[in-house]
Recover the amino acids of this structure.
């Protein structure tokens, strides 16, 4: 299975009420496999972006993909995961480590920075969770 993981995180204020959106699609058919918004409470925008990636990787690992393409509109996070930027912020270092650990479990992955308009569904899911102040699972994984 080849999948695309779209992730986004946002905070209303920085820090402020925050959530992350995750949308996983089949790379060949674009069919949605998992869609959820995750309520994070009070956090920074960058932490929300990382939490979105972590939650998305957790869901993707359950699907055991042969390849994973990650799309995110946070240039900072993408460049850090690519190894082009160092992770300097103390609050992001443990989140970065969690991402690296999860990526090591995948046989093949790549990450791309995309413009916000190419990441609309993940943004929409994050906003649904922020508005509801709770997790919102729109399309669950087959095993729950």
């Amino acid at each position: 299975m080849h999948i695309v993981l779209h992730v986004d995180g946002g905070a209303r204020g920085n820090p402020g009420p925050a959530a992350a959106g995750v949308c996983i699609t089949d790379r060949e058919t674009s069919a949605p496999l998992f869609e959820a918004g995750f309520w994070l409470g009070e956090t920074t925008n960058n932490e929300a972006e990382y939490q979105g990636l972590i939650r998305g990787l957790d869901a993707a690992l359950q699907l055991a993909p042969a390849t994973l393409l990650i799309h995110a509109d946070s240039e900072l996070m993408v460049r850090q995961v690519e190894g082009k930027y160092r992770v300097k912020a103390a609050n992001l270092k443990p989140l970065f480590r969690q991402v690296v650990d999860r990526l090591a479990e995948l046989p093949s992955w790549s990450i791309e920075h995309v413009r916000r308009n190419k990441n609309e569904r993940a943004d929409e899911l994050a906003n649904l969770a922020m508005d509801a102040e709770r997790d919102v699972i729109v399309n669950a994984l087959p095993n729950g």
In short: Residues 45-63 form the longest helix (19 residues). The chain has a mean pLDDT of 96. The helical segments are 45-63, 75-82, 93-103, 120-132. Residues 37 and 83 are 27 Å apart (CA to CA).
